[in-house]
Design brief:
Elements (H helix, E strand, L loop, with lengths): L5 H4 L4 E7 L6 H9 L6 E7 L6 H11 L3 E5 L5 H12 L9
Parallel strand pairs: 1-2, 2-3
Helix pairs in contact: 2-3
Length: 99
Amino acid sequence: MGYKNVMANSKTLLSVIVPIYNSQDYVAAALQSLQEQSFTDFEAILVENQSSDESLAVVQRFAQQDPRLRIVQHETNQGLATARNTGNDSNCPGSDQSG
């Protein structure tokens, strides 16, 4: 399935923040569902929160195939609220994206 690179031409209309933590068993289905939405002018900010399973590998495979998916990694697990805030901050120009 091909995806147009909406970020190359204009500002994205919608950013979806997806916190990722030890979700290897269902994150692929969640990302596939996101990709299959009829609204395509979005970016998904995948905030990987130092999972101890294979979640990062799963999201990396998806992100390599779809330019709308962007991974932001925390250096340490910082919890769900901070992961959401990191995703929000990473969408703002000039913000610090490191965790």
